[in-house]
Structures are given as structure tokens and as C-alpha cells.
């Protein structure tokens, strides 16, 4: 199983609303992209200096499945919005 983790830091403008919208948009993807095995989206509650605002943890059977997800039109729509409302993102992909 390939695990794909992305953490996002959001712009301050409309931060709470944008985090909620991104969470909802991401959570709609499993029903649209069949190569997406599972997905969990969480909004940070610690608000510490070291924390990011939102995390995505998703699983795929293999790299090819992640590649399908990455280029899927539904995912690209979410990515466009995320790029508008975030300042930073970090990613980790690993085999479980």
C-alpha cells in the first residue's frame, strides 16, 4: 500500500471557511476517483507554532493508482482551489 500525506498551511484571510471547504472537497474525492483506496482529512486542533493547519492522509494500491488520482479532473479542481488559499504544503509518500 502506498501512503500519500500532504500537510497545508492556509492564508489568514477566510482561514476557517477555506479549511472547511477544502476538507469537504477532499472528502468528496473517494466517490469520484476509484483508484483512491482510502482518505482521511483532519484540521489541526493544537494550533502550535510547529503545526500545519490541515492534513490529508490517503492510500493507494500502487504508484500508478496515485498517478491516476494526481491527474484526475476532480482532484485537479481541488488543487486549483487549494493553491489559491494556502501558503505552504509538504508531502510525504511511502510504502506501507
Structure description:
With 96 residues, the protein is of the alpha+beta class. Helix content is 36%, strand content 33%. It is built from three helices and four strands. The chain has helices spanning 15-27, 63-71, 73-85, and strands spanning 2-10, 38-43, 54-60, 86-95. The chain has a four-stranded antiparallel β-sheet. Helix 1 packs antiparallel against helix 3.
Helix content: 25-40%
Q: Output the radius of gyration.
A: 13 Å
Please tally the β strands and state the result: 4
- List the quaternary state of the chains: single chain
The N- and C-terminal alpha carbons lie at a distance of: 5 Å
Q: Biggest sheet: strands side by side, in what order? A: 2-3-1-4
Helical stretch tally: 3
Mean pLDDT: 98
- Pairing-aware structural class of the strands and helices? alpha+beta
What is the overall shape?
globular
Order of helices and strands: EHEEHHE
Poorly predicted residue ranges: none
How much β-strand is present in the residues?
Answer: 25-35%
Largest sheet, strands/sense/barrel: 4 strands, antiparallel
Q: Short description, anyone?
A:
The protein is built from three helices and four strands. By secondary structure, it is of the alpha+beta class.
Task: Describe the structure using short key phrases.
3 helices; single chain; 96 residues; four-stranded antiparallel β-sheet
List the helices and strands and how they pair.
Layout: E1 2-10, H1 15-27, E2 38-43, E3 54-60, H2 63-71, H3 73-85, E4 86-95
Antiparallel strand pairs: 1-3, 1-4, 2-3
Amino acid at each position: 500500500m502506498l501512503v500519500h500525506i500532504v500537510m497545508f498551511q492556509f492564508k489568514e484571510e477566510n482561514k476557517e471557511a477555506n479549511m472547511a471547504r477544502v476538507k469537504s472537497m477532499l472528502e468528496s474525492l473517494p466517490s469520484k476517483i476509484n483508484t483512491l483506496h482510502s482518505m482521511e482529512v483532519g484540521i489541526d486542533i493544537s494550533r502550535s507554532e510547529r503545526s500545519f493547519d490541515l492534513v490529508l492522509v490517503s492510500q493507494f494500491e500502487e504508484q500508478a493508482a496515485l498517478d491516476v488520482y494526481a491527474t484526475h479532473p476532480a482532484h485537479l479542481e481541488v488543487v486549483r482551489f487549494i493553491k489559491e488559499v494556502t501558503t505552504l504544503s509538504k508531502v510525504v509518500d511511502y510504502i506501507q
